[in-house]
Amino acid sequence: EPLALIQQARRDIRKTLDAYNIGLSHFGQAGPEYTAFVTKFFSALAAKGLVRVEKVPVLFDAVNGVFPVEAFVTGRCPSCLEGTCGGICEGCGHPNSCVDLAGLDRDRYQVRQEERLVFDLEQFRPALDQHLRSMGTHRPALGRLINNLLAGKLKPLVISYRTPRGIPADEFGAAGQRLNVWAEMYPGHIYWLTRVAGDEIAGARYVQFMGFDNSYFYAFVHVALALAARQAGFNWPLPSAFITNQFYYLNTGKFSTSKGHVVWARDLAAEHNSDLARLFLALHGPEYQEATFSEEIFLLAVNEFTMKINRVASAFNTRRNSMEPPQAGLPAVLTAMMSREVPLAEYSSAALARRSIHCLEYLEHLISTGQAPLAVIPSAVALCLGPFCPNYTDQLKARFSIAENTWTNLARCDVHSAMPEIEEQCVHAL
Question: pTM for the whole thing?
Answer without folding.
Answer: 0.88
